[in-house]
Specification:
By secondary structure, the protein is an alpha/beta fold. It is built from eleven helices and 17 strands. One of its GO terms (cellular component) is outer membrane-bounded periplasmic space.
Length: 303
């Protein structure tokens, strides 16, 4: 299997992100609106386990991203000196999430969204809170071990995802006979493989492990890593005061050890309302963030 030298990768791909000093008073449009309404709109993906997923009972959605955003919301509440804020959770589809943030329909998107250069032209991203890689979900025993095995077969990707970009790039490099089907949600992609209407589903590897655990049929996550996907909370790029506050709070959560504690809850413990543990240790890039948090980002890269 292809391996990634994360130390070299970090050295070549780190792009500086300026960390501004916290201001004593905030006047950004997003923060002003939150202060006036007392509401923070949080976007989430209903099938983005363990980052965000629908509560099977009642109440707020669950997940790693949801808990991180709850901490950010608390920091916003304290900074603008409100006694309480209402967290309004808004489900968003992959294809609509960027526009939802850019148009102010949601204030924070707390799921598995990759920080890419193209997306940063429209929205802003917090410090990365996970590093994923695009891989394949297939039926166990299918004989598919890598994307090259999909010649003449069907691959499913989600609309507006980095996986769709990778699929199209691979079709132009010797996989012209691979059929690519685009669906709206990750759950639909996994169900297509489980139900036999597609041969493979491509998305972030950590999501695939969750779908594998929930599938009706034996499934496997296969193939070498096809990308480096820095996942992060997304928010408006038009409010520098909000950016300063989010960067400050993310740095605090990393340096205090809170991020590591949250990580263990969602990646190395039994998942709430689920009967399994993903048992995934931090990879080299995330381990580096835990030990040496910084305001640098690793850009999305297709391998």
């Amino acid at each position: 299997m292809k391996t990634i030298n994360f130390s070299l990768l970090r050295g070549f791909l780190l792009a500086p992100m300026v960390i501004a000093a916290a201001s004593s008073s905030f006047a950004g449009a997003t923060l002003d609106r939150i202060k006036q309404t007392g509401v923070i709109n949080i976007g989430f993906r209903e099938s983005g386990l363990p980052f965000s997923y629908k509560n099977s009972e009642t109440g707020a959605p669950l997940g790693y991203g949801i808990e991180v955003c709850a901490a950010l919301a608390d920091a916003i509440k304290q900074e603008i000196r409100l006694k309480a804020v209402e967290l309004k959770y808004v489900p968003v589809a992959g294809a609509a999430r960027i526009a939802a943030v850019a148009e102010g329909k949601i204030d924070l998107e707390c799921a598995n969204t990759t920080n890419t250069k193209a997306r940063r032209e429209q929205v802003a991203f917090a410090m990365p809170y996970y590093y994923a890689a695009a891989r394949l979900l297939v039926k166990d025993g299918s004989g598919i071990g890598k994307i090259e095995d999909l010649a003449g077969k069907t691959l499913v990707v989600t609309k507006g995802s980095t996986g769709s970009l990778i699929a199209e790039a691979r079709r132009g490099k010797g996989l012209a006979t691979m059929k690519v089907v685009v669906v709206e949600t990750s759950a639909e992609g996994a169900a297509a493989v489980d139900g036999g209407t597609a041969d493979a589903f491509m998305t972030d590897d950590i999501l695939l492990h969750g779908f594998k655990a929930q599938a009706k049929n034996p499934m496997a996550v296969v193939g070498p890593s096809m990308s480096v996907e820095p996942l992060a909370v997304m928010y408006s790029k038009t409010d520098p005061e909000l950016e300063t506050l989010i960067t400050k709070e993310m740095m605090h959560m990393y340096t205090s050890g809170k991020m590591k504690t949250i990580y263990k809850k969602w990646f190395q413990s039994s998942l709430p309302q689920r009967n399994y543990n993903l048992n995934v240790s931090p990879n080299a890039l995330l381990s580096d963030m835990f030990s040496r948090p910084s305001g640098f980002i690793v850009d999305w890269v297709m391998l």
